[in-house]
Amino acid sequence: MPELPVVIVATDAEQRAVLQVLVDSTSVARGVQSCSSFPAAASDPVMRRIQNSAPEVILVVFP
Questions:
Q1: Rg (alpha carbons) of the chain, rounded to whole number
Q2: What phi, psi does 47 have (nearest 5°)?
Q3: Global pTM?
Q4: pLDDT tens for residues 11-21?
Q5: How far apart are CA 46 and CA 34, in angstroms?
Q6: 3-class DSSP state for residue 61?
Q7: Could you tell me the maximum CA-CA distance found in the chain, to the nearest angstrom?
Q8: How far is CA 51 from CA 3, 14, 17, 58, in A?
Q9: pLDDT tens, residue by residue, 38-61
Q10: Domain limits of the chain?
């Protein structure tokens, strides 16, 4: 079974790192992108990176 591509969006570096480890340690998902800021608009570069990653799951951590 292929792994689910996951994007992690969190402003805190420690939270991003922990989530990345947790996602990668599963046998059903893998982190494909990690973003340190939230997209402000549809034209935001963060949004473009997320779209290019083609994730099936997006984890968002609100401060």
A1: 11
A2: -65, -40
A3: 0.90
A4: 999 999 999 99
A5: 10
A6: strand
A7: 35
A8: 18, 24, 21, 11
A9: 999 999 999 999 999 999 999 999
A10: 4-61
